[in-house]
Amino acid sequence: MEGIKLFEVREDILSDNDAAAQQLRDKLRRDKTFVINLMSSPGAGKTSLLLKTAAAIGGDLKIGVIEADIDSTVDAEKIRNAGIEAVQLRTGGFCHLDAAMVKTGLEGIGSQNFDLIFIENVGNLVCPAEFDTGAIRNAMILSVPEGDDKPMKYPLMFSISDVLVINKIDMMELADFETTVLRQRAAELNPDISVFEVSAKTGEGIHGWTDWIKKEIKDFS
Amino acid sequence: MHELPVTESILNIVLKHAEKNRVSRVVSITLHIGELSDLEDRWLQHYFDYLSRQTLAGGAKLRIERLPIVLKCRNCDQTMHITRKDLGAIECPNCAGIGDFSLVSGRQYYIKDMEAV
Fold first, then answer.
1. How does residue B1 score in pLDDT terms, banded at 50, 70 and 90?
2. Given an 8 Å threshold on Cβ–Cβ distance, is B110 in contact with A6?
3. From B27, which residue of chain A is nearest by alpha-carbon distance?
4. What is the mean pLDDT of residues A83-91?
5. I want to staple A127 with a disulfide (CB 3.0 to 4.6 A). Which of A81, A95, A98, A141 is the partner?
6. Does A92 reach chain B within 8 Å, measured CB to CB?
7. Which of A1, A7, A17, A162 best tests the B interface by mutation, with the highest count of B CBs <10 A?
8. Across all residues in chain B, what is the average pLDDT?
9. Do A13 and B9 count as a contact with CB atoms less than 8 A apart?
10. Contact criterion met (CB < 8 Å) for A184 and B99
11. Could you tell me which residue, B90 or A56, shows the higher pLDDT?
12. Beta carbons of A8 and B99 less than 8 Å apart
């Protein structure tokens, strides 16, 4: 076609979100509020792990929770019933949280008054991996019934997570799941990932995870 | 699954450049997207068509170029290009070390250029 001209654009599509996330992280460092972005499939046990974690370290640290849910308040109510402060962000169909939404949540809960805030991201292993939330650390939960092949299906999630919590180890005998295989596959994508095996139901292994959190917070502040 | 917010970003950036360059219509947009992203080309175009109606970019064709995943061996600093299906037990072609790589690139979401009249 005549008259078509080429214009250089050279812009990163996610640069706005990345910049907003960095600003958020700077603020969190100033306030000494440690934020963990918790990601998993639906039903992997984010809420149960939060409740067990808060029970284990809530005496020493002031903990808050930002809940993302497409359109319900079930999880936030469970958290509040356990005496933990929580705000609910309804994502209205969005499949992930971005930095702007997290900022709203942090302001809503008054993040400067907390030592530790968990962001319970929307349950899926694809979209949340792409968007920096501004959290200090990314954690993913994989539950035993989901299978040890997930690093092959969702490589980005394993690449961007600082820590992997293998949950529901009490169901190990029922499942075709090899922890060593999963650990190896995760390490191939991310050699620095820390891995903990827990049961949020029985409490087994929970201290490995909570000790990691305590150490991270100590190094942070 | 997150094509919608990504598409919104693309449209906003393209319209900004369209205005700056005083064009009357955007014909095509070239995107560089890393292989590690899960975006589907077809849905990206579909959402773009929907969002860009009644704008200068309405009807523009998205040309999506996939960029390879680039890893760097942490033993010998050798870099290598792989595709998504190669992920897993990768052996370094230089030192034969296995599974100790850092990700150099593969997550890009980048607008390279656009054609307009």
1. low
2. no
3. A4
4. 87
5. A95
6. no
7. A7
8. 90
9. yes
10. yes
11. A56
12. no
Structure confidence at residue B91 (pLDDT): 84
Question: Is there a contact between A155 and B84 if contact means CB atoms under 8 Å apart?
Answer: yes
User: Domain B3-116, what fold?
Assistant: hypothetical protein PF0899 fold (3.30.2320)
Cβ-based neighbours of B1, under 8 Å, separated by 6 or more = A95, A124, A126, A127, B38
- Output the CATH code of domain A18-212: 3.40.50.300
Partner A contacted by B44 (CB < 8 A): no
Tell which residue, A131, A139, A188, has the closest CA to residue A167: A139
CB pairs under 8 A between A and B: 100
Close Cβ partners of A185 (under 8 Å, ≥ 6 residues apart):
A148, A149, A151, A152, A158, B88
> pLDDT tier at A72 (50, 70, 90 boundaries)?
low
Q: In the prediction, which pLDDT does A159 show?
A: 92
Q: What is the pLDDT of residue A161?
A: 97
Distance (Å) from the C-alpha of residue A18 to the closest C-alpha of chain B? 12
The pTM for the full model equals 0.88
Residue of B nearest to A2 (CA): B117
Q: Is A209 helix (H, G, I), strand (E, B) or coil?
A: helix
| Record: contact B27-A1, CB cut-off 8 A | yes
Torsion of CA A28, A29, A34, A39, to 10 degrees: 60
Task: Give the list of residues 6+ apart from residue A40 with CB closer than 8 angstroms, or none.
Answer: A46, A123, A125, A140, A141, A142, A143
Examine the pLDDT at A90 and tell me if it is beyond 80: no
